[in-house]
Write a structure and sequence with these properties.
The protein is of the alpha+beta class. The chain contains 17 helices and 24 strands. About 11% of the residues have low confidence.
């Protein structure tokens, strides 16, 4: 076998396989070029999911005739000029592969003007057909037609037209969220799907995409340290989704995929959401370009960070602070005909869950030594006991409406905060168990013997390994009345499954488990004194709105809603 040099058309088609996976990838590359051209308006139009045609127009700086022709040459770019530029990339595009790669698998037409010179270039599946002058306003329009028409092996890998349309819409949505100061429009088969004003408000863009309820539940997010700055919007957890695809991240306004940073967002929301629900959040992470390597993959989706763990911690702590300050009391969902101005792209592929509107309330408190610090009277509602419903719910009235408290979730919240606080305190009084806890270990569990003994000691459980079993002889005094065996079993599972990456998370999960097993159950009828105690305990919590597993502890039916339902 002889080594030969591939011709330029074949190398462009190979590059297209890396850069152009589907119509959404083309839209991403073209929109990034428009952003680099300092456009203030970007219009995207597709036909048949982008397979028949894709058109991206902008009002940016445009190009002269020389640059317009050179743009179709492989590795030709205005974004970098030397090796040192690779380590401080501040533009969206820089590889010089997008246009020649796209033009190798489609008929591509470029019309551009820099304000003094107008140029039209047409490249038909890698072969330049036209290069001439054509009048147009300042800016650039790229039209891509017949994608993969001459490469049927690539064409057959595309999904349905609806799926491809949804993928394009998702990309445009996210660009609009990243750049609220730019007016975006998206049209599919002559039907307008999205139109943003470019007024600079990210919450306005969220309203355009997700609707009024989500916009009302959105709060600004700001945080920073000496290297990183975080700006964006977090939607309060009363509105959530069934997957992580609504967590949108940008690095220096570049749309990226980062499973680790996505996990940081999900972990910050974890105390407020059930395990199978995820938040809506949009975060733009700004940093010195030298701290991030965007030259990891041709499509530029992936990045490599220099100080990854510190950014992870900053994202998580910033969101935790915002959620603690802005948490709202859930309100009973009302039947409404309201719908977003258009259906979000992700909802074309995933089920959209019902959305509950929320009413503002803030919280600001901390834990004392023995009990959670109570809310002030003007934050937590003053509840007056009415009674119990079906041995499950406690009914109360307040000035603004009817409150329904989940008796199990409410006490679970209180006991979780109490246990979490006690487990975090060092040198707790200990007691020796009359009957030690004996927990047999499987051979695979025994491989973690040293780690188990260490972690148990970190939460003040004196443990040792004896005859392939974990034996616990001493526990903190406050824990002696709890189900220690069940607690130890759950601890072993948590440690070995490595769900807990640090001691604080291990303690929180352990406290949640113990609180759940020791709280009032459903179908238990309570006396007035017992119900009042549940209310008092809940009012003393640092975060009373959700149990540690994310379920709401209470909901409210406002006087306004009751009046409306009774046609008053």
């Amino acid at each position: 076998m002889s080594i030969i040099r591939l011709d330029s058309h074949l190398t462009n088609m190979i590059a297209a396989g890396e850069v152009v996976e589907r119509p959404a990838g083309i839209v991403k590359e073209l929109v990034e070029n428009s952003l680099d051209a300092k456009a203030k308006r970007i219009d995207v139009a597709i036909e048949d999911g982008g397979i028949t045609s894709i058109t991206v127009s902008d009002d940016g700086t445009g190009m002269d005739s020389v640059d317009a022709a050179m743009a179709f040459e492989r590795h030709a770019t205005s974004k970098i000029s030397g090796i040192e530029d690779l380590w401080r990339i501040s533009t969206m595009g820089f590889r010089g592969e997008a246009l020649p790669s796209i033009a190798s698998v489609s008929e591509t037409e470029l019309i551009t003007s820099n304000g003094s010179e107008c140029t039209k270039v047409i490249v038909d599946y890698g072969e330049k057909k036209v290069e001439e002058c054509e009048m147009c306003p300042q800016g650039t329009t790229v039209k891509v037609k017949g994608l993969f028409l001459k490469t049927p092996a690539r064409l057959k890998h595309l999904r349905s037209l609806n799926y491809e349309s949804g993928a394009v819409a998702q990309v445009v949505e996210r660009f609009a969220l990243a750049h609220p100061d730019i007016a975006f429009s998206l049209t599919s088969n002559n039907q307008q799907l999205l139109q943003t004003s470019g007024n600079g408000s990210r919450i306005d863009v969220i309203f355009q995409i997700y609707g009024r309820s989500t916009a009302k539940a959105s709060v600004e997010v700001n945080g920073s340290d000496y290297d990183y700055t975080i700006n964006g919007v977090a939607v309060l957890p009363s509105i959530n989704r069934a997957n992580r695809n609504y967590i949108t991240l940008f690095v220096n306004s570049r749309l990226v995929r980062s499973p680790s940073l996505t996990s940081a967002v999900a972990e910050a929301y974890a105390p407020y959401l059930p395990p199978d629900r995820y938040p809506i959040a949009v975060l733009d992470l700004t940093m010195d370009p030298q701290l991030v390597d965007v030259n990891v993959h041709p499509s530029k989706w992936e990045i490599r960070l220099s100080e990854h763990q510190r950014l992870y911690d900053l994202v998580k702590s910033t969101l935790q602070t915002v959620l603690k300050e802005k948490m709202q009391a859930p309100e009973m969902a009302a039947v409404s005909s309201e719908a977003p101005l258009y259906k979000p792209a992700l909802d074309l592929a995933f089920e959209q869950i019902s959305i509950r509107e929320t009413e503002s309330a803030a919280m600001d408190s901390g834990l004392k030594q023995d009990n959670p610090t109570p809310f002030s009277d003007d934050v937590f509602p003053a509840l007056r006991l009415i009674g119990q419903l079906h041995g499950k719910y406690i009914l109360c009235q307040a000035e603004d409406g009817l409150y329904i408290i989940d008796q199990h979730a409410a006490q679970e919240r209180y006991r979780y905060e109490l246990f979490d606080q006690k487990m975090s305190l060092a040198n707790q009084p200990e007691t020796e168990l009359v009957i030690p806890v004996y927990l047999p270990l499987t051979p695979s569990q025994s491989a973690y013997n040293e780690l188990l003994v260490k972690r148990f000691g970190e939460v003040q459980l004196e443990a040792e390994i004896l005859d392939n079993a974990l034996v616990v002889r001493k526990v903190p005094l406050w824990m002696a009345k709890e189900d220690v065996l069940d607690f130890c079993t759950k601890m072993v599972d948590e440690i070995i499954s490595q769900k807990s990456t640090d001691l604080s998370m291990l303690r929180k999960r352990a406290a949640a488990t113990m609180a759940c097993h020791s709280s009032i159950r459903f179908n238990r009828h309570l006396s007035n004194e017992e119900m009042q105690r549940v209310l008092d305990d809940l009012a003393s919590c640092k975060q009373p709105y959700h149990c540690p597993h994310g379920r709401p502890t209470f909901i409210k039916i406002s006087d306004t809603q009751l009046t409306r339902e009774f046609l008053r």
